[in-house]
Amino acid sequence: MRWKKIAKLNKLIPDTSAIINQTISEQLEQKKISFSELLIHRALLSELENQANQGKDTGFLGFNELKLLKELAKKHKFKITYAGNSPSLQQIKLARRGAIDELIRNLALDENGTLFTSDRVQSEVALASDVKVIYVASVQVGGKLTFEKYFKEGYMSLHLKQDTVPRAKAGEPGQWEFLDLSKKKLKEKDLEKISSEIVDAARTLEHSFLERSKRGHVIAQIRKYRIVITRPPLSDAWEITIVRPVKKLELSEYNLSQRVQNRLSGRAEGMLIAGSPGSGKSTFAQALAKTYADSNKVVKSLESPRDMQLPPSVTQYSLTKASHNELRDILLLTRPDYTIYDEVRNFEDFSLFADLRLAGVGMAGVVHASNAIDSIQRFIGKIEVGMIPSIIDTVIFIKEGQVQKVYGLRMGVKVPSGLREKDLARPVVDIYDFDTEELEYEIYSFGDSTVVMPIKKLKQKSKKGNRVELRYRLVETSKYYEYLFFTPTKRVSVVIDNILVSKLPLQKGRSLRIMKKSRLGKEIRHAGLEGI
Q1: Which H helix or E strand runs over 196?
Q2: Which of 150-154, 158-162, 332-336 has the lowest mean pLDDT?
Q3: If we measure between CA atoms, which residue out of 379, 372, 373, 368 comes closest to residue 396?
Q4: Cα(294)–Cα(186) distance, rounded to whole angstroms?
Q5: Distance (Å, whole) CA 469 – CA 190
Q6: Which end of the chain, N or C, is more open, meaning fewer C-beta atoms within 10 Å of its C-beta?
Q7: What's the pLDDT score for residue 473?
Q8: What's the CATH class of domain 251-458?
Q9: Which of 372, 364, 433, 371 is nearest to 392 (CA)?
Q10: What is the distance in angstroms between the CA of the first residue and the CA of the last residue of the chain?
C-alpha cells in the first residue's frame, strides 16, 4: 500500500523490520498514521531478545522502539497488546527464512488487522495471502540518507557523537580541518535513528553491505561510504563515523620515476603499501588495481569493509564473511594475477598474505605504519627473516597522499655493516632506496634476536669519533641486565642523569652483563632505566 496519509486503523500488527527500523514512531510523530490498538506478537519479542543476546545492535534498536511506543501510547491514545504464543526454538533458528514473519502474518489475518512492515518480501507475501498490509521502506530508493545531508563538496569524513555537535573533516589527506556543522548537539535518539537507517540501507540498497554487526558496534558499507557505529558498552556513548573517498587518482598522477613505474608493471609482485591512517594508502591501492585491471590482468581484492572504488572486473571479497582458510582456497581456485589486500592487520592476515605470495599470486598489501621500515618489521616474528624477500620485494610509503619513499628488498650472505670479523658472515636482508640503490637498512639474526639496523645512522655516528651513543638490545632476567650492542666496541661508559657512573669492558666486544644485586645494578634499577 503506497500512502501519504492513512485513515485511522483499528488494529495495527508490526513485524520485526518495522520495529527495528523505528518506522512506526516516526510516522506517528509526523501524523501520517493513526490506530486504536498496537498488537505485538510475542514471537517478535523473542526474535529481538535472540538478536540482543547475540550482541546484535538490531535487537537493542528494537527494544528502544518498543519503549518509545509505550511513551507515545498516551499521547496518541492507543493501547498496546501482546498476543500469540512464544515461538519454538526451531522457529527462532529459522527466523531468517521467514518462520517468525509467518506467525506475525497469521496473527494479522486472524485478528482482521493491518500488517505494518518495512520488509518488501514480507509485504509481497502478505498481499498474496490476502492480509491487509502497509509497506513503508525505511530507506527510499533514490532518496538521500539522513547522514548524506551533512556532506558537502570536499568533506572527507563525518563524525557524529552523542551530546556533541556534528563535525566533519574538510580537505584532503595531510591538508584538512575540523568543522562544526551545527550548533545543536546530537541526542541519543538522533543517532539511534541514523543508525537504524544505516543498518536497513546496508541490507537493501545496491552496492551496500553489512560487514559486521555485534554487540556495541556495526561496520557497514553503503555505496561509497564506509561507516562505523559504536555504542555502549563498547564506547562511552553513541558514535557514528562515516568516511568517503575524496579523490580517485590514476597511477600516472603520482609522479613516479620511470624506474618505479617499470617495477610496478613488471617484477613487483610482493608489495606493501604503507602509511599512517588517512594518508592515502587505499587511494593508491585503488589506482594500482585499476592499472592492473586495464592491463588485462585478473585482479581480486580482500577488504574489511569493502570500501575500495574498483572497476566492475575486480571482484571484492569480504574478510568478515569467510574464514582466512576459505578465502585462501577461493583465491587459489580462481587464479588471480594480483590480489589487493586491504588491510593486513593481524597474524591471520600476515599468514594469508605470505601463503598466497609463496603460491605465486601477485600481492599488494595495505599496512598501517608510521614509516616504511615499520611495515616490514611487522612481518618479523610472523614469518622467518630469510623468507621476507621472497614475500616482499617492494615497499611504497605514502604520506599526505603522495609517494614519499620506495624501497626494494634483496637477500645476500655477507658480514653485516658495523661488524669486522669475517666469520660473522650470515644471511642479510638488504633494504635499499629503489631509485638510488643506496642501502638504508639491514635485517639479520644476531644470537636469538632479529636486528633491524639503520645503515645511514650507523655511518653518521661512526664519523663523530669514539664518544657516541651505542644502539643495543636489553635482555632482563630476574638476576641481571644484559646489553647486547649492535656495534662492536671495547669499552662503554655508563651515564646516569648525565653523571659518569662507570666504564666497563664488553665481552667479545658485544655484550655487557650487570648483576641486579651489584651497586651498579641497584643504581640502574633505582634510576628506573631500561638501558644505558
Answers
A1: helix 188-204
A2: 150-154
A3: 372
A4: 45
A5: 57
A6: N
A7: 62
A8: alpha beta
A9: 364
A10: 78
CA pair distance 48, 67, nearest whole angstrom = 13
Grid cell 554487540 is found at 215
CATH tag for 146-243 (out of 3.30.160, 1.10.3470, 3.30.450, 1.10.150): 3.30.450
Provide the mean pLDDT of the chain: 84
Q: Is the peptide bond before 505 cis (omega within 30 degrees of 0)?
A: no
For residues 339 and 475, give the distance between their C-alpha atoms in angstroms, rounded to a whole number: 40
Which residue matches cell numbers 591512517?
277
- 368 and 337 in contact (C-beta within 8 Å)? no
C-alpha cell belonging to residue 140: 527510499
Neighbouring CB atoms inside 10 A of 27's CB total 19
Report the C-alpha gap between 251 and 210 in whole angstroms: 30
Q: Evaluate if pTM is beyond 0.70.
A: no
Residue 348 confidence (pLDDT) = 92
Contact predicate 122/102, CB 8 Å:
no
**Domain spanning 9-135: which superfamily?**
5'-nuclease (3.40.50.1010)
Q: What angle do CA 367, 371, 377 make, to 5 degrees?
A: 65
